[in-house]
Write the structure tokens for this entry.
Amino acid sequence: MRYWLIKSEPSEYSLADLAADGTELWDGVRNYQARNFLQQMEKGDRLFFYHSNTKPPGIVGLARVTQANLVDPSQFNPESKYFDPKATPEKPRWYTVEVGYQETFAEIITLNQLKASFTPEEFAVVRRGNRLSVMPVPETVAERLLAMVS
């Protein structure tokens, strides 16, 4: 089992939305590095759910990968804002996972708390200018994060 961080703007899709839905396809990722991280995920991996573009931003809870290495169907839908005209069912360009709700933390771990607790080398989310929406979380960092909420 590995750990990852996934970001979402709560106005687009929040952890509360995932709690209500139970599971959701994590579609619409259109960054190749983030896509490659999605392709490395395996069923059962744990996901730190980060709310971005809100005050304050931070980690609000946990989810789990329920299905891995899925073709993102939004790339084929001309009505979708994530449509990719270069993608075909025979040669898809974008992959994703299905995520399942696990837990909402009693208190958010704010970005300021993360910056005070981790160096940019330890945890990419605190690296200046990092806008990546999917990233790995080293096990040592994950253990420290979980200790912060227990």
Summary: The two ends are 20 Å apart (CA to CA). The chain has a mean pLDDT of 97. The CA atoms of residues 123 and 141 lie 7 Å apart. The first helix runs from residue 15 to 21.
